[in-house]
């Protein structure tokens, strides 16, 4: 058995920030999950639909691994990323740093992980790996998945090699702090402004505040769009509220990030952004509850009400990001 020493195997709410937290704490930098999410400019919005999907996907964050790249660039971290189509090389890329005493981040498809309770394909899942023996890999996943967990080496290999939407080719990564790390407090305002700029200037209409407006138009028709409404709508609501988002489609994480920022920086714009995202988080929870009720009851009125709230959310988040962009 090979186990990296001094790893704090603490699961938090969101997979990518959980893995980053494990890797950075081992390097000596301990930041809260909301701070990691915010410094990585992680908040976004996407309304994604394809004909082969049972229901459109509503996402609340940037693309998988963009948060990690953003955070590394902002904090001056050395981010070492390995990808390969070779199963042998993929294992070597993981075993070598662990043998050398360093945990490793992995992007994979959670469907093949033995401990995962919900068997759905999601190729953008991220975990930290800190050990292995002849049968199992020792991982840190989110709190809701168990925190410190194990999965078979065979299952891990399949999860890493899976192909499909949002997957990567056996991606593994490590992070290293610079000899003189920059003050992370000084990187807060640039992170907030970059997130706001991207949200407001999204290049297509299904992203950012325009994407929320598009959702407001299309969600009321989801009972007709869904293949199995009684199953598909509650599942969509579950993913929005409890599917590793930290609550309210990542808005709780961003609300808490802004709250932490206001305790470090005296700025009216930050306080306004925090107030507006506090309101937005509550409304996103209302939207997911209405989508769930629509699926359970078959009553489209719940979706009509969700659409009305989504229009309000488009306005509220646009206003919040306009304020935050001017910091």
Question: Fraction of residues in helices?
Answer: 40-55%
Mean pLDDT: 96
Radius of gyration: 20 Å
Q: Measure the end-to-end span.
A: 50 Å
Number of distinct beta strands: 9
Question: Outline, from the CA principal axes?
Answer: globular
- Note the run of SSEs as H and E: EHHEEHEHEEEEHEHHHHHHH
The number of domains is: 2
The major sheet is characterized as:
7 strands, antiparallel
Structural class, by secondary structure, is: alpha+beta
Approximately how much beta-strand content do the residues carry? 5-15%
The helix count comes to 12
User: Which blocks of ≥5 consecutive residues have pLDDT under 50?
Assistant: none
Topology record:
Layout: E1 2-3, H1 15-27, H2 33-39, E2 43-48, E3 57-61, H3 66-75, E4 78-82, H4 87-99, E5 104-108, E6 125-132, E7 136-140, E8 148-152, H5 153-161, E9 172-176, H6 188-200, H7 208-218, H8 222-225, H9 229-242, H10 251-264, H11 268-297, H12 301-325
Antiparallel strand pairs: 1-6, 2-3, 4-9, 5-6, 5-9, 6-7, 7-8
Domain Butirosin biosynthesis protein H N-terminal: 14-142
Domain DUF4872: 155-324
Protein name: BtrH N-terminal domain-containing protein
């Amino acid at each position: 058995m090979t186990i990296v020493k001094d790893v704090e195997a603490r699961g938090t709410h969101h997979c990518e920030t959980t893995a980053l937290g494990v890797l950075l704490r081992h390097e000596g930098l301990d930041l809260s999950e909301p701070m990691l999410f915010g410094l990585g400019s992680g908040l976004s919005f996407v309304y994604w639909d394809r004909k082969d999907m049972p229901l459109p996907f509503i996402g609340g964050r940037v693309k998988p691994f963009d948060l990690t790249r953003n955070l590394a660039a902002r904090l001056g971290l050395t981010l070492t990323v390995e990808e390969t189509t070779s199963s042998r090389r993929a294992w070597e890329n993981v075993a070598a740093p662990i043998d050398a005493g360093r945990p490793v981040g992995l992007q994979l498809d959670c469907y093949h992980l033995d401990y995962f309770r919900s068997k759905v394909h999601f190729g953008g899942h991220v975990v930290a790996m800190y050990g292995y023996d002849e049968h199992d890999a020792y991982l840190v996943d989110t709190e809701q998945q168990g925190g410190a967990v194990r999965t078979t080496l065979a299952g891990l290999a399949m999860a890493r090699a899976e192909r499909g939407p949002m997957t990567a080719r056996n991606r593994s990564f490590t992070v290293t702090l610079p000899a003189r790390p920059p003050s992370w407090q000084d990187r807060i305002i640039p992170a907030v402004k970059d997130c706001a700029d991207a949200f407001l200037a999204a290049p297509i209409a299904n992203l950012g505040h325009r994407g929320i407006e598009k959702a407001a138009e299309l969600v009321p028709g989801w009972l007709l769009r869904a293949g199995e409404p009684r199953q598909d709508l509650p599942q969509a609501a579950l993913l929005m509220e409890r599917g590793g988002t930290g609550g309210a489609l990542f808005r709780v994480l961003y609300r808490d990030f802004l709250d932490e920022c206001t305790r470090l920086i005296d700025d009216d714009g930050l306080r306004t952004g925090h107030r507006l995202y506090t309101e937005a988080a509550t409304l996103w929870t209302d939207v997911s509850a209405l989508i769930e009720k629509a699926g359970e009851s078959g009553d489209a009125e719940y979706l009509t009400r969700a659409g009305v709230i989504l229009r309000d959310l488009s306005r509220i988040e646009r206003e919040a990001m306009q304020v935050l962009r001017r910091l």
